[in-house]
Write a structure and sequence with these properties.
This protein is of the alpha/beta class. It is built from 12 helices and 13 strands. α2 runs antiparallel to α9 (about 260-275) and α11 crosses α12. Bound molecules: pyridoxal-5'-phosphate.
Amino acid sequence: MDFASLRDSIACMESMTYMNAGWAGPSPSQVVERMRDAGERESAGGPAGPEGRAFAAAVEEEARTEAAGLYNVDPADVLITHGTSEGVAIALFGLDWQPGDVLLTTDLEHPGIDSPVAVLEERGVEIRRASIPPDASADACIEAFRSGLDSRVKVAALSHIMFTTGLRVPAEEIVAAAHEVDALVLLDGAQTGGHIAMDFAAMGVDFYATSGQKWLMGPTGSGAFYVRPDRRELLKPLLRLSGTGFRSGLAQYSLASQGVAERAGYAEAVRINRELGPERVEEHTHRLASALRAELSGIGGVSITGPADGPTACAITVISVEGWEAPAFVEALWETHRIVARHVAHPPGVRICTAAFNNESDVERAVAAIAELAGR
Ligand SMILES: Cc1ncc(COP(=O)(O)O)c(C=O)c1O
């Protein structure tokens, strides 16, 4: 599989310029085919009969093994989930919060973190929010993060890549800083899996939640959650008493049953990413984003909200355009040029993602459309 054949296998790229993998990536035909095939085999095998159950177990094992291979951890430490929010909930609500404990987060988070944090706040957990500039340097990220850290912080929960600005925080340094005061780290990786190359073991992270439907181009309702093996005992399963029920290992933390088709599609999506090579995907997506930002910075009235380059930049580009509200600009991109982007708030902007299936012609089309609309 190469980038050109990946693109050719994605149906919507024939009729539009899709630049919104940060919300949901369009699945390649191989993923769609795997899901269809899994559904048929499940039905033919009898879903809860011996053959159907054996098939579902094999697919689940395959999905965990693929995810573990992608993130360099043991499959036993990976739970296949319905997405990032599920992993975040398992971690944040599964910990034993005591009076005086503090949760440290940031002011750039998605509801995937903000919502459970609000629930914990209502239950009496003290919340601190580190204020991170949208286009912060790596040093500024660490400094802002450190300003909220002390020995009362039980967990730091934050995005590895911020969905509103594309800011990539220096994960290893953040984990090391938190561990210095014995705080745990939960990273929200909704915007990372399938976008940047990662090694959870080297990162030393305690909990890491990811999505399958975004940059990986897997099905909606798929993802993976990693728990560092020596941290598992800190988490209580939310829906059952530990050690009871018919599930063992990390499967006891699962919040709901999942279809075999989603798991098969997820496994295939990860397999494709590994075949392309996570480092090559990172290089491809970031090169397109750098080209996009270089062109956009020369257009009057267009400014880049997030990091323009360097280690905190990624393949998410966020712009604001003089004279336009972001939602209207996103609508105009679609109405006039069939370009799919999204608007973000806090800070407001138009988000454009350059994913593995995008190419230089998408960048050129986006630049031409933005220049035309900015000049109106
Ligand atoms: C940073 C961030 N966290 C969490 C989520 C939610 O992800 P999921 O739908 O997989 O739970 C998103 C989705 O856009 C996101 O961007």
